């Protein structure tokens, strides 16, 4: 049997016969049986048996092969062809997998049915090749199916990813936080799934397109895993390069710093810029507006809300000058003006625009009507008042209040010295309703806050609630807003009711002084974010400067910005360009001691000016000496080379402030020009009167104000010292800042004593922590300074906030020496045990003197000039007095009689007259 037709069983037989098979095979036919018998191997018999089995195996093999090839050959070939050429299969992969599984089963069955010992090498090879082809085809189909399944499983995630990522594909816009968080997580998950799929598959087996897709996507998402977290950082860097002409080409002041530039170009859905004092808050807001314009955002799609009209006008002017856009096309205004524009827009053509719109007139009129009728004790059916039924409730409560007041004399005790009872009550009733409106309190809310055990409050507040109800009826009956609060409420309601008309109007809303927003103003701003609008909110502010809690502001809206809004990017501005380092450090230390929730700010100073804030502690006759001492500091500053406009005097209060009134009087006495904001100058020398040749009127508080609006210092106006409250100083600065009356727990100090107004308290709902806000108020005062800061206080009563940072202050304790003319001397009666009394006119103030007879005090001469060294101060029933019997008293100049005025000695006359000259 030729070797190629041999089969393993036969070869095994030959091995067993050990060469006898050769003899048998070579023996002539007659002798082969003899040889087989001779060697006793039964070779021929066994060979015959093997050949028989071989024939059976060959038949089964051939039949099986033909059956498999005829049934599955085309399937296998088609699969192998696609595997070989790398094209996508043009057959149903799932059906192909089934057929190949059947083919594999058929081959396995054939192999199991055959005894390979009876197959030739060629047959075995052919069977192996058939089996390998089927395995290769199945491998191809398995990989293809696994790829398709993985692809399908990823399809939803890929589609969601691409949909969220598509807006950022060109790196032309900032990635909002929610998209970034989603894309970061999705890219990692997809990359992990692709990696798992790649490990599971044999890429060389897949169609080229599939292998390429898997490889490219795995590579792409591997890159995205790193790129997406850094996307915004790269976007900001690219934007800063693209708009470098805007952000850096500032010849006068130099480029915006890194934080300012970042704040300008970051564009999350909600953006908060935490701008500490002097870090360029308004500058950043202005450049944000300009940046949006340069990016192609239409001017009409941007709204900026400022805290004051002056700020709005200044910003609009700067932007118009820088961009060429007409100021009238810029939507920059205060929040009340902004709200009014919404209301006006909604009421065009409705006829409501013809109604009375003088805000405040409606309340003033209502208060006057009710109060006048009640003071006359007119009954509801007699009085000419709106809403007689409500007036009846008001009258009943007001009668009770007058009865209680007659017993307790509350009005007489609390009314101002020049204020009538009617004016006092009118003011309190107006304030009561104003406060309820400011804090959005309904009558039921106010009633719950009334202390029924306090007769004065109970009766007055009950009358106030009735007045509030009447006013709310007036509000409800009037289509157009009749006060500032209603303006905000009405505008908010309009936006929420028609978001497609109003909320979608602006793509960007910019809000200044966000730390001072109230519930109502926040609701108004949030209305623009309602529904499906894509409006972006950009807020700037500083929670350390939140000082309007009494006006309804809530600093928590700033400190909890990220909790209230989604998609928030927070950018701090930490370089103070205003204050010297010592003041920046003192401010940071001051706020570090606050126990109220607040944002941390590692602020640094740009200035290298080496100067320390100064604390002036006056000991003795503080109230009398303070005004003159404050003005002495002004004169010191002027003598040092500062100009009038370089000096700012601050105090906790302004209106009805005894401290600032006395300071103003002293400034006027020394002929130092000065002014307060929103008023004409308090004192202007005759030589500069023509500069202010405009008609003025006087408001209810007696302050002179221009009829045309708040007084504004134009570029040609003469320089003046600014005198104002700390609240009014916010947003301003000066090289020299003098804080008067930095006294603790005082009606005009910082902190002001936590006062309550018994009559109007039920209409107030202040959420701010009083002492935390007072701390912030002192911080505002401190950070107005560009160079020098002076705090004037009473020794032993220094503000707790100054004490918190005393280590940062240079402390000055002025020598207390009195020098002046004795204008009054009253000795006691000879037989009385009463003290000597005298008054020393020290020019800046009058010093009350007293001495007891048993100490044998000197008798002072009226008109004479004295110096009292190391005066001993004693607290008397009417305030501080100087015990001149326990102090060193020196006579400087004796009284000069009228006849001595005829003296030819001018020096003598000067010596006599000068010390006491007024």
Q: In words, what does this structure look like?
A:
This protein is of the alpha/beta class and 918 residues long. It has five domains: 1-229, no CATH class; 253-355 and 507-571, Rossmann fold (3-Layer(aba) Sandwich); 361-478, no CATH class; 611-812, Rossmann fold, CATH 3.40.50; 817-916, OB fold (Dihydrolipoamide Acetyltransferase, E2P) (Beta Barrel). The protein has 31 helices and 24 strands. The longest helix is centred in the first third of the chain and has 45 residues, at 121-165. It starts with 7 loop residues before the first helix and ends in a 5-residue tail after the last helix.
Distance between the termini: 151 Å
Structural class: alpha/beta
What spatial form do the alpha-carbon principal axes imply? elongated
Q: What percent of residues adopt helix (DSSP H or I)?
A: 40-55%
List the domain count as a whole number.
5
Rounded mean pLDDT is: 86
Q: Approximately how much beta-strand content do the residues carry?
A: 5-15%
Number of strands: 24
| Lateral strand order in the biggest sheet | 11-14-10-15-16-9-17
User: Stretches where pLDDT falls below 50 for ≥5 residues?
Assistant: 349-357, 679-713, 898-918
Note the total helix count: 31
The radius of gyration over CA amounts to 48 Å
Tell me the major beta sheet: 7 strands, parallel
């Amino acid at each position: 049997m030729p070797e190629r037709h041999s089969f393993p069983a036969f070869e095994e037989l030959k091995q067993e016969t050990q060469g006898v098979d050769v003899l048998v095979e070579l023996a002539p036919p007659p002798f082969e049986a003899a040889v087989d018998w001779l060697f006793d191997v039964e070779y021929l018999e066994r060979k015959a048996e093997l050949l028989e089995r071989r024939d059976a195996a060959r038949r089964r093999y051939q039949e099986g092969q033909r059956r498999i090839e005829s049934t599955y050959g085309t399937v296998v070939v088609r699969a192998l062809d696609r595997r070989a050429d790398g094209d996508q299969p043009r057959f149903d992969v799932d059906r192909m997998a089934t057929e190949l599984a059947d083919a594999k089963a058929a081959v396995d069955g054939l192999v199991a049915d055959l005894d390979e010992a009876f197959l030739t090498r060629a047959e075995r090879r052919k069977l192996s090749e058939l089996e390998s082809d089927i395995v290769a085809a199945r491998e191809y189909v398995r990989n293809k199916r696994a790829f398709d399944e993985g692809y399908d499983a990823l399809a939803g995630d890929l589609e969601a990813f691409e949909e969220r990522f598509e807006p950022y594909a060109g790196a032309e816009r900032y990635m909002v936080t929610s998209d970034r968080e989603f894309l970061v997580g999705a890219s990692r998950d997809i990359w992990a799934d692709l990696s798992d799929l790649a490990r599971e598959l044999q890429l060389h087996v897949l169609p080229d397109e599939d292998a390429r897709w898997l490889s490219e996507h795995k590579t792409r998402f591997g890159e995205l895993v790193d790129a997406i977290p850094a996307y915004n950082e790269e976007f900001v860097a690219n934007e800063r390069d693209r708009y470098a002409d805007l952000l850096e080409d500032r010849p006068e002041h130099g480029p915006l710093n890194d934080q300012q530039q970042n704040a300008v170009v970051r564009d999350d859905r909600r953006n908060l810029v935490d701008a500490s004092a002097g870090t360029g808050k308004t500058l950043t807001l202005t450049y944000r507006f300009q940046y949006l314009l340069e990016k192609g955002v239409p001017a009409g799609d941007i709204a900026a809300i400022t805290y004051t009209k002056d700020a709005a006008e200044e910003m609009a002017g700067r932007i118009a000058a820088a961009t060429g856009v007409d100021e009238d096309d810029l939507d920059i205004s205060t929040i009340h003006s902004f709200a009014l524009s919404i209301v006006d827009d909604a009421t065009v053509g409705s006829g409501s625009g013809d109604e009375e719109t003088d805000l405040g007139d409606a309340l003033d009129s209502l208060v006057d009507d009710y109060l006048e009728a009640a003071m006359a004790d007119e009954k509801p059916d007699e009085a000419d008042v709106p809403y007689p039924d409500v007036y009846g409730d008001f009258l009943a409560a007001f009668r009770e209040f007058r009865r209680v007041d007659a017993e307790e004399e509350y009005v007489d005790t609390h009314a101002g010295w020049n204020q009538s009872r009617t004016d006092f009550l009118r003011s309190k009733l107006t304030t009561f309703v104003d406060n309820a409106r400011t804090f959005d309190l309904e009558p039921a809310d106010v009633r719950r806050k009334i202390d029924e055990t306090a007769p004065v409050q109970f009766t007055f507040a009950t009358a106030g609630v009735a007045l509030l109800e009447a006013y709310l009826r007036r509000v409800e009956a009037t289509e157009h807003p009749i006060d500032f609060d209603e303006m905000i409420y009405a505008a908010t309601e309009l936006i929420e009711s028609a978001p497609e008309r109003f909320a979608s109007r602006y793509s960007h809303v910019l809000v200044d002084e966000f730390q001072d927003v109230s519930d109502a103003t926040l609701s108004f701003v949030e209305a623009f974010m309602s529904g499906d609008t894509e409006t972006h909110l950009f807020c700037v502010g500083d929670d350390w400067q939140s000082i309007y809690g009494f006006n309804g502001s809530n600093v928590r809206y700033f400190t909890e910005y990220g909790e209230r809004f989604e998609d928030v990017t927070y950018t701090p501005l930490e370089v103070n360009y205003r204050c010297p380092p010592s003041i920046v450090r003192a401010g940071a230390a001051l706020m570090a001691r606050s126990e109220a929730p607040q944002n941390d700010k590692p602020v640094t100073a740009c200035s290298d000016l080496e100067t320390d804030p100064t604390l002036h502690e006056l000991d003795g006759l503080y109230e009398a000496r303070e005004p003159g001492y404050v003005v002495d500091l002004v004169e010191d500053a002027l003598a040092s080379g500062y100009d009038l406009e370089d000096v700012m005097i601050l105090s906790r209060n302004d209106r009805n402030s005894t401290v600032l009134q006395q300071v103003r009087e002293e400034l006027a006495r020394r002929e130092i020009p000065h002014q307060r904001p929103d008023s004409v100058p308090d004192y202007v020398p005759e030589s500069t009167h023509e500069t202010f040749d405009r008609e003025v009127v006087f408001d209810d508080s007696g302050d002179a104000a221009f009829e045309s609006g708040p007084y504004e210092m134009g570029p040609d106006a003469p320089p003046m010292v600014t005198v104002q409250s700390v609240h009014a100083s916010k947003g301003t600065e000066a090289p020299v800042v003098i804080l008067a009356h930095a006294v603790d727990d005082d009606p005009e100090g910082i902190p002001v004593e936590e006062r309550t107004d018994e009559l109007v308290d039920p209409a107030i709902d202040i959420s701010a922590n009083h002492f935390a806000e007072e701390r912030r108020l002192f911080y505002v005062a401190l950070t107005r300074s560009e160079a020098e800061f002076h705090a004037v206080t009473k020794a032993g009563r220094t503000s707790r906030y100054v004490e918190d940072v005393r280590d940062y202050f240079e402390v000055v304790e002025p020598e207390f020496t009195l020098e002046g003319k004795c204008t009054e001397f009253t000795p006691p009666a000879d037989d009385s045990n009463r003290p000597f009394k005298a008054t020393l006119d020290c020019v800046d103030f009058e010093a009350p003197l007293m001495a007891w007879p048993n100490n044998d005090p000197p008798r002072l001469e009226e008109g004479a000039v004295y110096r009292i060294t190391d005066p001993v101060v004693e607290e008397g029933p009417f305030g501080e007095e100087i015990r001149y019997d326990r102090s060193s008293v020196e006579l400087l100049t004796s009284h000069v009689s009228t006849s001595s005025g005829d003296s030819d000695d001018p020096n003598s006359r000067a010596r006599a007259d000068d010390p006491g000259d007024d």
